[in-house]
Write a structure and sequence with these properties.
The structure is a single chain. The chain has 3 helices and 6 strands. It has helices spanning 17-21, 27-32, 64-80, and strands at 34-40, 43-49, 88-99, 107-114, 121-129, 135-146. A 6-stranded antiparallel sheet has the order 1-2-4-5-6-3. It starts with 16 loop residues before the first helix and ends with a strand.
Length: 147
């Protein structure tokens, strides 16, 4: 991508693997406690292991902004795991989250599934569960590609 920020590699099927290999070590992911557990074409699972740095919300729950970040990063990973030759990632175009209950516990699991992969858009369904398996947040993410 010619207009990509300086210093960032062009994302292609061949160059995306280091992003997955280093996911948990990226400074922001590490700060929040996010770990990439599983990924394949159209699917990703990321866990947030709470630390003293994990932002908290009401009643000690995980902060909604941290959950939104978790949702976005998991959705993006599910899309990029299936990156094809000639596709040019453009980023998240839309994100809609519904918080169903406070997210508590030590581990938060986020799963994302690409519903359809078009030439310019890929809608992704995302679910966030707590360490008791309760659905805490559901989301739809729309990921864009450059034409």
């Amino acid at each position: 991508m010619a207009d990509q920020s300086p210093g960032l590699p062009t994302l292609t099927p061949a160059t995306i693997q280091p992003c997955f290999d280093n996911f948990s070590e990226m400074a922001f992911h590490k700060y929040l406690g996010m770990h990439l557990v599983e990924y394949r074409d159209g699917y990703a699972r990321v866990e947030l292991h709470r630390t003293e740095h994990t932002p908290t919300g009401i009643g000690g729950s995980v902060h909604g902004g941290a959950l939104a970040t978790l949702v976005d990063m998991t959705a993006v990973t599910s899309v990029l795991a299936g990156l094809r030759e000639g596709e040019h990632p453009a980023g998240t175009a839309d994100i809609q989250l519904t918080y169903l209950r406070q997210t508590k516990g030590e581990t938060v699991t986020c799963e994302a599934r690409v519903l359809k992969r078009g030439k310019q858009l890929a809608p992704v369904e995302v679910k966030v569960t707590d360490d008791e398996g309760r659905l805490c947040c559901s989301a739809r993410v729309l990921y864009a590609f450059r034409a």
